[in-house]
Amino acid sequence: MTPWIIKPLTTPEDIDAVVTIEEASFTNPWTRDMYIAEQENRGVSFCYLAQDPRGSIVGFCSFWRVLDELHINNLAVLPDFRRGGAASALLAYVLKEGARLGARRATLEVRRSNEAARTLYERFGFIVAGVRRGYYTKPVEDALVLSRDQLMDGLESP
Ligand SMILES: CC(C)(COP(=O)(O)OP(=O)(O)OC[C@H]1O[C@@H](n2cnc3c(N)ncnc32)[C@H](O)[C@@H]1OP(=O)(O)O)[C@@H](O)C(=O)NCCC(=O)NCCS
Fold first, then answer.
1. Is the CB–ligand 1 distance for residue 87 below 6 Å?
2. Residue 85 belongs to what domain range?
3. How far is the CA of 135 from the centre of ligand 1 (A)?
4. Per residue of the chain (158 residues), what is the pLDDT tens digit?
């Protein structure tokens, strides 16, 4: 199992890596300008990267923490590195970090047809909390709203 290193997005090169992963993963990717704008939203918007032992950034997870809720905006891994545990390492880290920041539950939207992501989130205790009809474009598709309560559970004591 690859020992993924999870670290925060800090540099313009980190944003380049995230945009590359976005473009390889989504039909409607977030742009560089969107990530730059997110960086201005300090204390609310966070982005963590998964780096392999040779220093390549292969995945990322971005989220907002508002009051007691963590909302995952994007989670993606470069196609050649999938099924290697990078997304699991990111998600485990982000849920723990969200709890540390005071979040009690996590929410996100996922395409109904996205079996890979749905299986991953189910393994992390997310359940379907609702449906947003026609939420996605390219192609139009429903979003399932997933939710995981009790984020503090499993958080190690300091
Ligand atoms: C979803 C995604 C982030 C998973 O990344 P990953 O690094 O491959 O995930 P992991 O290796 O940590 O997988 C953990 C578990 O998730 C499930 N899973 C992951 N990919 C799967 C697939 N293609 N089919 C079925 N289950 C899958 C499996 O249970 C897997 O465990 P296993 O490999 O021991 O069977 C990746 O497929 C991706 O980037 N997809 C495109 C972007 C996307 O859809 N993001 C989610 C937006 S909500």
1. yes
2. 5-107
3. 21
4. 789 999 999 999 999 999 999 999 999 999 999 999 999 999 999 999 999 999 999 999 999 999 999 999 999 999 999 999 999 999 999 999 999 999 999 999 999 999 999 999 999 999 999 999 999 999 999 999 999 999 877 555 43
What total number of domains does the chain contain? 1
The verdict on residue 91 lying in a domain is yes
**Which CATH number do you get for residue 84?**
3.40.630.30
Token pair in block for residue 135: 């939420």
Which helix H or strand E contains 23, and what residues bound it? helix 12-25
Distances in Å between the Cα of 136 and the Cα atoms of 76, 132, 139 are: 17, 9, 7
- pTM for this predicted structure: 0.96
CA 88 to ligand 1 centroid distance, Å: 8
- Assigned domain for 101 exists: yes
Which of 120, 128, 146 best tests ligand 1's pocket when mutated (most atoms within 8 Å of CB)?
Answer: 120
Reduce the DSSP state of residue 112 to 3 states and report it.
Answer: coil
What tokens appear for 75 in the block? 């989670």
